[in-house]
Amino acid sequence: MRPILLAFALSLSALVSAQAPLVPWPRNVEWQEGDFALKQVGVIEGEGAQGWGAQLRKELSSLGATSIAADEILRSVQLIRDSTQGEEGYTIAMEKDVVRIAAGSRIGALHATRTLEQLAAPDSIGNWHWPRVRIQDAPAFAWRGTMLDVSRHFYSVAFIKQYLDELAALKMNVFHWHLTDDQGWRVEVKKFPKLTEVGAWRTEADGARYGGFYTQEEVKDVVRYAEQRGITVVPEIEFPGHCSAALAAYPQLGCRKDTIAVPTTWGVFHDVYCVGQEETWSFFQSVLDELLPLFPAPWFHIGGDEVPKDRWQHCAVCQARMKNEGLKDEHALQAWAVKRLQAYLTGKGKRLIGWDEVLEGGLGSTAVVEVWRGDEQARKARANGNAIIRTLYFDASPASLTLDKVKAFDPLVDGDAHGILGAECPLWSETADERSVGYRIFPRLHVFAERMWSGEVRGDIMERTAPHVARLEQEGWVTATTDKDLFRSAAVFDPQKRDWLITAERGRPDMDVAWSSEHGSGTFTDSLRVVAPGTVKLTPRWREKPLTDATSIRIAPHLALGARQVASPPPARQYGRDPDHGMTDGLMGTTTYHDGLWQGWWGVDPTITIDLDSARIINEVRVRCLQQVGVWIVLPRTVEFFISDDGVKWQAFSTATHTIPVEGAGPLVHDFTTHPQTAVRARYVRAVLRNSGKLTAWHLGAGGDSWVFADEVIVR
Ligand code: ACM
Ligand code: ZN
Question: pLDDT tens, 532-558?
Fold first, then answer.
């Protein structure tokens, strides 16, 4: 019998090793016969390893594997300090009744514990064991980080702790906390209470207040929590740009000193700190004096990205500063500001980290450069002697940053690791909050963590990740195992049936969509037929919980609904989905110019003719138009309306104009509306949209043609 039993045991252990859900995969793994039963296990901390076993004891206890009393210990795990393992390396060696973990530090012992957690498996009767194995492991990169933007959306302390748990499980070791930005200042500063009283809150377009911040006690709690898990918290306080929220709180810190609101839209804002005046410096240094002691990390991130220079160009104080310091332009002023900040941080024992813009105009070589704009910036940083952090932005939808692209991520520059500390997977949170952010993180994070720890991603990673994903979903994280957007919806009008079909593309088959309108409510998965005009609100859900706020599809009733339209010249093909009924389908274009509902014309005055099929009494005609100057879309100067009985002879009806400045960047929708003094009767209605002309001098496309975007000619 024995040989057969042995063969069976061997195949069992081969099975275990093939399926062991180790992520990241260790540097060296040797599978051995048999396993190590997790029953009455004692944890013994050797000399210099005091306290290293805390996490392991917790883990064993949760598996019911610890002994009640010392004399009941059957097996032991011994933790041994071994400086040859390096800061984060470890070995695990198993014998019959002893497991020896050798590590260079508490962090290495923690990593060994994570590995053992992933190895623990129950047998058929529920007894836990580790497969017998020998592992030698150490990370490929020292900086294995992520960044969370808590400004665009606020994330609670409870959420951040949950996130830290997942980072630690994957041996990630840096949590870069993006604490301030235009849309919210998120950390308490006692000397400047308005930073959070004013700067942490914004009033959304619908009037709702949105915001939040962390008290200094909460920050300390998070830092401690991370530290226990082997994670360093690196704070980022943006300077000298991305600071609208701070300027909303203290307008005197800007060049113009005018009162601004905390923004509710995304993008890059012109108002930045006035670096010419000393008041800004005493403010920012006081902020640092309060915040630096909360973060034991030797690094401090100052942002430094995307700083428009126009306020400085028009500020007498900044110009005087440039003259006094012999700075040739505003880029040199930015470099001067970064250097001054670097000197201050150095004096406090901190190393400055900045986004790669800090390279502009010269940077001290002791700074760390976080590269977000590609290889060219990385080469520049390397040539300048700076240590480098690479990035892979996780805010991208899985439809664009696919899992294959994450697998292919290469933190090296030109195949060379010289100067590369490691990488982060930053998550900018404009379109993600606690409800849906898991969809951007998992299982990408597993792939990223393996690339950074192991140096390569093994082909079977999705198999190994599957049990982790299942566990994450059980704990309430929504995950993305296919390369799809979380949710997309579209509506089309059926001119024959005169109804509308709403279709949904869901990122997961187990998602549904809750809908509600004036006419009712319910749920659907793929499509919903709508028979009456109204506003239909759609909320994608997972396990009956909303993943995002609702999106609205507005369907307006009017006389021209379904009427034939002729546009001359025809609209650009790439925007409007339906050139025959797009202007009369009842569907109102949203503030997204590429939603398929807007029709666009470039550099011309489109004429849109509507045939109502028979003469109708008309009290109102309106044309809705979009303005979003950043993408070249400007409201028409005027809209001229005409009517006709036969479509041949036209009678001028009225002209609608507007007073919205081109600086009103948008996206905004304006209705060009006209009412006749007395109702008129006509079969044909025509609108001529007068293009606003060439783009103004300050525009990126200055002197070029602008677009006219229109959706729906509404006749009542
Ligand atoms: C950045 O994405 N502005 C660093
Ligand atoms: Zn200034």
Answer: 999 999 999 999 999 999 999 999 999
* Cα(179) to centroid(ligand 1), Å: 14
Is 391 near ligand 1, meaning CB less than 6 Å away?
Answer: no
pLDDT at 98 over 70: yes
Which of 711, 621, 611 has the alpha carbon at shortest distance from 675? Answer: 621
The reply to whether ligand 1 has any atom less than 6 angstroms from the CB of 305 is yes
Q: What pLDDT score does 71 carry?
A: 76
Strand-pairing partners, residue 655, are 640
Q: Let me know if 288 is exposed, middle or buried by CB neighbors in 10 A (0-12, 13-18, 19+).
A: buried
Confidence at residue 1, expressed as pLDDT on a 0 to 100 scale: 32
| Cβ-contact 448, 403 below 8 angstroms | no
Beta bridge partners of 187: 214
Q: What is the pLDDT of residues 475-520, one digit of tens each?
A: 999 999 999 999 999 999 999 999 999 999 999 999 999 999 999 9
The type of residue at 202 is: R
Nearest atom of ligand 1 to the alpha carbon of 357: 4
Ligand 1 atom 3: residue of nearest CA? 305
Q: Which domain CATH number covers 697?
A: 2.60.120.260
The answer to whether the CB of 300 falls within 8 A of the CB of 232 is no
Q: Give the total residue count for the chain.
A: 716
Within-domain flag for 160: yes
Confidence at residue 665, expressed as pLDDT on a 0 to 100 scale: 66
Q: Tell me which residues have their CB within 5 A of the ion that is ligand 2.
A: 255, 274, 276, 315, 317-318
The phi and psi torsions of 624 (rounded to 5 degrees) equal: -90, 135
Ligand number nearest CA of 252 is 2
CA 156 to centroid of chain Cα atoms: 16
Nearest CA to ligand 1 atom 1: 305
Tokens describing residue 180: 């301030």
The per-residue pLDDT for 641 is 96
Read off the pLDDT band of 390 (50, 70, 90): very high
Within a domain: residue 62? yes
Amino acid occupying residue 651? Q
Q: Which of 275, 136, 318, 297 is nearest to 227 (CA)?
A: 297
Give whole-number Cα distances, 545 to 211, 435, 508, 522, in Å. 22, 9, 14, 14
**Which residue would you say has higher pLDDT here, 653 or 230?**
230
242 is catalytic: yes
With a 6 Å cutoff on the Cβ, whether 372 touches ligand 1 is yes
CATH number of domain containing 36: 3.30.379.10
Closest-approaching ligand to the CA atom of 152: 1
Q: Is residue 639 domain-shared with residue 698, that is, in the same domain?
A: yes
Question: φ and ψ at 651, to 5 degrees?
Answer: -120, 125
Distance (Å) from CA 607 to ligand 1 centroid: 42
C-beta separation of 513 from 539 below 8 A: yes
Atom of ligand 1 nearest to the CA of 428: 2
Q: Where are the beta strands (DSSP E) in 357-461?
A: 368-370, 387-391, 420-427
Both 48 and 147 in one domain: the answer is: no
Do both 590 and 511 map to the same domain?
Answer: no
Q: Are 449 and 171 in contact (CB under 8 A)?
A: yes
- The answer to whether 306 is a known catalytic residue is yes
Task: Name the amino acid, one letter, at 711.
Answer: D
Does 181 qualify as catalytic in the annotation?
yes
Domain that holds residue 532: 486-555
